[in-house]
Amino acid sequence: MIFDYAERQDQRRHGPAGYTQYESYRPWLRDEFEFRCVYCLKRETWGQVTSEFELDHFEPQSLNPRWRLDYLNLVYSCRRCNAVKRDQTVADPFRLLRATLVTALPDGSLRPHDGDTQRLIRQLDLNSPRLRSWRVMWMRIVALAKDRDKGLYSQLVGFPRDLPNLSRLRPPQNSRRENLETCWFARRLRGSLPAEY
Fold this sequence. Notes:
By secondary structure, the chain is of the alpha+beta class. Helices cover 34% and strands 10% of the residues. The protein contains 8 helices and 6 strands; from the N terminus they run βααββααββαααβα. A two-stranded antiparallel sheet has the order 1-6. A two-stranded antiparallel ribbon has the order 2-3. A hairpin with a 5-residue loop joins strand 4 and strand 5 (110-112). The longest helix is centred in the last third of the chain and has 20 residues, at 129-148.
């Protein structure tokens, strides 16, 4: 299902550090969060990348300025979710929004499996009637495309064309350089990029 959360690892795959502007982390975060919003799972391929996706400090920089440039405090978010979150402090979505802790249902709602995940879903209004309806609409669009237009289906559930080549980037520090081979661009070069995700 297109709204199934990933089974994430216990820690982030990438470890860039030392940038002087948090926008420099964008290619790393795009790759880390699979080119979709960490909160609602909206995909880049469903809209305009430059205007619909933002870098969110899940621990607001207004409350903790020292974490402004901390990669582990940044997530990839659509504009809607970032606007709803605003300056709220939320638990780490990387830790909570994973397959074992939340299930997307056919009616478009999210069913949390623990209290922390339930609180995060409530804080971001991820079960609002409007968002549930939006999920159902996209499930139907993807199902129709799968039946009637394979090219469109591939575009909707496949990776974007402009995958970032992280091995070309030179952050001042990188505590997980060994994971550059796991980035989606490197997988495409090896011929191991899945057709859909």
